[in-house]
Amino acid sequence: MKVWQAIIILLLMPALAIAGGRGAVDDGYVEQSSWRLAMAVGFGQSSSPLFDAPNMPLYLLPDISYYGKVGFFDNGILGAGLDVTPHWSVSLVSRLNPEKGYFYRWHVSRIPSFEQTFSSMPTVSMEPRSAEQRVSVNEVNRRPTAWDGGVQLNAWFDDWTLRLNGWTDISGKHHGHELSAVAGRHYQTGWGLWRLSAGLYWKSENLMQRYYGLAEDEPLHLPRYQPTASLQPELELSWSLPLSAGWRLMAFYRYRWLDSAMTQSPLVQQSYQHSWFLGWSYRFF
What we know:
The chain is 10% helix and 45% strand. It is mostly beta strands. The chain has one domain: monomeric porin ompg (Porin, Beta Barrel). The protein has a 12-stranded antiparallel β-barrel. The longest helix is centred in the N-terminal third of the chain and has 16 residues, at 3-18. The protein is globular, with a radius of gyration of 20 Å.
């Protein structure tokens, strides 16, 4: 762990240890010491932009979270949160890095949460690659499973939400970083609750090189590629319609644009990544 990472943790831990709060992964208020368990059944898909990495079908989407006085777990994210003001919170968070998920059909990091969205976005095409330029995920070395840690800020203003994240590799697998900002707005209508959000994700050069680069340790017959840092915008739209105390209809679509730092990699065949789902969800508690 680098010195600046340790300093951040040391500065925040005393406040987190003495103050109660709610976790800040979710965009809305969550009561302390509360469990949430829900399951969605339907059909959807999470795409992979890589050669020979199949799209992942989505039939069941679990929603599992627990928020204590300080610590919380929310759909794969562990953290400890502190309410700074009634409208702002700060959390220390950790997660399984999602980049490895694109290399496999079935991977836990490719399962979207209930807060994903629905939208109709144009498909951005890429210039077709020659056979010599294409590299299958089956030809390269296995990408590492990495664990990230970082800081998250959440804000709530009427129907608006804002989430800022700073992630860094704490497992020593890719030595990279990621920054993101996501702003969203809720719309309550007679046809249910809608949520529209826009996000921007920056991924460092080290992270990009570890997962999408082709370095000297790859098989000799493969081309070499060293990507730079990547900037990836994203749009999301979701819909939810309550049917009873526990049941609701839901749909979402998420679309992310991939910039040239990623699309120029011989591993990549698409300049976008998207996920969608339509089905019913039931909340057990």
